[in-house]
Amino acid sequence: MNLLRLLAPSWQRPGRARSCTRRRLLTLLAGAPLAALVTRVRAALSAARPVDAFAARDLHSAVRTLYGGRSPVPSAAIVIDTVDIAEDGSIVPVEVSTSVAGVRSIALFAERNPAPLIGIFRLDPALEPYLATRIKLGESGDLLAVVETDTALLVARRPVRVVLGGCA
Question: What is the pTM of this model?
């Protein structure tokens, strides 16, 4: 049945009485808060996404756009666990962990990808600062993990050799 016909008031539908049924009223009342919730979630997600950082075409501009004038400091407290040689660049497993306290986010960058920013993962302070995911790598190069804490911006690098690129 056509959705517009279903949502039309009963007095406008052929063969129906001129009254609004209780079932119809409850359906409309239950659907309104759900629609408002979906709208709010979509707005919050689109506002939180740093579009300019994802659109950057080189590593330095992506980091600069994401973190402003702050420069990440190399740290041995960040561990990037991944393969040394990736047979297929379209599925490269990556794990990032750190012993630093107060981690707010972990961002992954691929130095030689067409769009270097792979993802930003915001963490609750109550969580262990650990990330496991699979990424795409276009060609061989360094993989960077930038850890943002309450007081510092830390970075670790790990070279990865890619046999067959995964980015078109």
Answer: 0.71
In CATH, the architecture of 52-164 is Sandwich (2.60)
Burial annotation 88-112 (CB, 10 A radius, 16+ → b, else e) = ebbebebebbbebeebebbbbbbbb
Look at the block and give the residue holding tokens 């666990």.
Answer: 81
Q: Which residue is associated with the tokens 């992506």?
A: 62
Per the CB < 8 A criterion, the answer to whether 82 and 158 are in contact is yes
Question: For residue 11, is pLDDT > 70?
Answer: no
Residue 108 has what DSSP assignment?
Answer: E
Domain boundaries, the chain: 17-48, 52-164
Between CA 95 and CA 128, with CA 48 as vertex, the angle to 5 degrees is 30
